[in-house]
Amino acid sequence: MTQPLLSLTSLTKAYPGVIANSDVSLKIAPGEVHALLGENGAGKSTLVKMIYGLVKPDSGQMQMNGQPFAPAEPSAARTAGVGMVFQHFSLFDAMSVAENIALGMENAPKLGALSAQISAVSEEYGLPLSPDRIVGDLSAGERQRVEIIRCLLQNPKLLIMDEPTSVLTPQEVEILFKTLRKLSAEGTAILYISHKLEEIRTLCDTATVLRLGKVVGHCTPRETTTREMAELMVGKLLQTPTRAGQQAGDVVLSLTGLRAPAPNAFGMALKDISLELRAGEVLGIGGVAGNGQDELLAALSGERPVPRGMVHFKGEDIGPLGPTARRERGLLTAPEERMGHAAAPDMSLTENAMLTGAVREGLDKGGFLDWPAATRFAQSIIDKFDVRTPGTHVAARSLSGGNLQKFVIGREVMQRPEVFVVNQPTWGVDASAAAAIRQALLDLAKNGAALIVISQDLDELMEISDRFAALNEGRLSEPRPAQGITVEEIGLLMGGAHGMEVAHV
Amino acid sequence: MDLSSINPIFFFAGFFVAATPLIFAAVGELVVEKTGVLNLGVEGMMIMGAICGFAVAVESGSPLLGFLAAAVGGAALSLLFAFLTQVMLANQVASGLALTLFGLGFSALLGQSYVGVKPPRLPDVNFGILGDIPVFGPIVLSHDIILYLGLVLVVAVWALLKYSRVGLVLRAVGENHDAAHALGFKVKRIRTLAIMFGGACAGVGGAYISLIRVPQWTEGMTAGIGWIALALVVFASWKPLRLLLGAYLFGGLVQLQLNLQAAGVAIPVEYLAMSPYVMTIVVLVLLSRDKGAAPGSLGRIFHASS
Questions:
Q1: Does the keyword ATP-binding apply (chain B) (predicted)?
Q2: Domain enclosing residue B49, as ranges
């Protein structure tokens, strides 16, 4: 092996109460595509933030090309040749593409000259992008291109990508990988963070696995199975959810020509959505984020009531009914955003249990709240769904993402829904908790409930759905049996590559 | 009623004078809000500027020193707001309201010995022969240097926000402070500087009332101009040039109602006195159709760890 481009030696970083990284060492050679694997909270983000100068290590050294490397801030890291594409895009919605790119550059040229450079680079790497467009109007894939081009314009020697594919269609992923391979062939090293193991096997040369802040192993992804890598990540054997495969029952929920205007300037209107949902079946709805998922959930939950005749629950027209009335009838929902939407962050678990459980669990008697019953209800959720928490009195905010997710999903499942609509049930949840949540959803279906699972994780949808449909630009495709559907077909249903083209290699 | 008693030249010249305090306060607040901070303490910072400027001008005999002191006074008070909201992460709305109440009270205390005193007068700029142009000369070219400075400031802020790197970074911080932090911009430092700029501008605006427009010191003499400035920023959709338009509308209406009062129109004085406030808000509400113009992080507290 030649001299490494970047080498990290026993980096340690502690936050109050948690050691994010402990004695982490790794080496990256020029042109190497190196995967960083690990569960949520394993310390991947902290590690790359140290390389990018956002966080200072407590101890340990970094070396770049054999020289000591200790960036005090991101601009120093950028000058040294490190570029980073963030997981949650660090973009400014109200500004143009060119302005966004200028903000992330040292010594940005005048906007006119910069626009010309953007066009040139986007042409070279097959990432078409108009410099004058406002970022708020772009799709997720296009936003990512803004970030990538921002990095490429600075000729990085090391490109860090934090979960880059979570918002892309399969076709967009394919094109992204072509771009990355071209970069790697030109000598740019890539540090690739993901927990999508299949992607890592296709793209990466080497992998380092982190668990609880420590390096637990290195491997060559092409020679390792995804299952082995997953078990290295979680440190235990994984259980695959099982399903019973049964006949669907009567139609319980039907949508006929559901339309709703966009709730705000950056939202999506629902256009003519029709479907029939039968008892005991799981309908998986895929699609790139921002194509109407939140709006569909709001229309089903009753947060945004719709005109008469569009939503029927067991034959009854429930379009104009609000959430409480729908809950009373047995239509329950769990939104994507845990903090602030599914749960009130500063309220205790008991209070949060009361918030959605009052009607169906009889926690509200003649206008008075039955707190002992709510506490018992919250405790039963915690027991049944293995929520790790000191008790029912703690604030929802203090739970980790995965634990809170188990709580908010469990809270609805425990109320015996007849129809359960859930958006991103395992978003940001570690593999074992995700498996438990999927199993709970499948059990619910087995007991006769009908489920709509909206998700951006295609593997998840394939695992639990009976039928599959995709949202694209506020329209829902015709649902089709999930068995035997290919990734390419799903990608086309999701809207294809959104005008991307293959890199001109 | 005798409308002929209104002198059109003085009437239009008064437009500019009445609008200037509002222009200063509003353009300062516009910069603050562009960085994502909502400072409701404009009224308090104005009145602090009014008394600081008045006191220093009287003691030193120099109105320009007075305006400098007003800027320092306004900025000093705004530092209290910056400390509360940027260091202690206090709620911006509550802190701003507290700032206004504190400013009104503290200025009354400082100004006790200045009631009834006459401040030194700031001379008008001499434009030489240009000032003799009929109509245009007496209306536009018969004012003091601070008034013209206000116009230059608005144009400068507009150009800075639109064309400069500083302006781009400033807007970025206001648009999405988490993203700006991730790119390595010093969110708190930029916001603190913007808050101080806003305070200095509000101070100068206040001093313009006590030193030029009225000119004397009375408690609470800013009379809600700070609140109008806040409304003006919102209804001007955070655009400096539209803000200028709104300020002149307000200045014109103030001038009109004063003249109507003097001419003895048979409408109760209270209605006339409130009319500029009502009319300005109504017109600006109608103008401000693009509600999406607000900075994305406006009023949200930034904490680097999240």
A1: no
A2: 3-119+140-293
